[in-house]
Amino acid sequence: MVTEKEIIDVIADEMADKRSGENITSYKSGFFTKDKWIKSRSTLTTKKNLITEFEVRKIIVAGSKTLKISKNTIIGPLALEIIQEKGIKILRE
Predict the structure, then answer these.
(1) Parallel, antiparallel or unpaired: strands 74-75 and 50-51
(2) 42, 67 in Cβ contact below 8 A?
(3) 16 pLDDT exceeds 70?
(4) Going along 41-83, which residue ranges are E strands?
(5) For the residues 82-92, what does the mean pLDDT come to?
(6) pTM: predicted TM-score of the whole model, two decimal places
(7) Is 47 a residue whose pLDDT tops 60?
(8) What is the DSSP code (8-state) at residue 24?
(9) What's the rounded Cα separation, in Å, for the pair 89 and 17?
(10) Cα dist. 91→4, 28, 38, 69, 88 in Å?
(11) Distances (CA, A) of 82 to 26, 29, 32, 33, 90
(12) pLDDT of residue 44
């Protein structure tokens, strides 16, 4: 039987392959807007980063055991759980 982690790994690999390939078209907004693409409504500024489970899984696939991040970087709870589980060292700069 396929486990949940195996499904997540397959999906993460497919998403990484699609991102590294050709340009992916984003969702186009309708005729009622002036902008061609939907703008991000994120509350995070460009100075702050967010480390998610997806980024951690990419690091694991690459074989790295250290994660270099800035002081203002936020680590998501699931990402932190995977970091602790896999023994990845966090270096804050």
Answers:
(1) parallel
(2) no
(3) yes
(4) 50-51, 66-69, 74-75
(5) 91
(6) 0.48
(7) no
(8) P
(9) 26
(10) 29, 38, 34, 6, 10
(11) 29, 36, 43, 41, 12
(12) 46
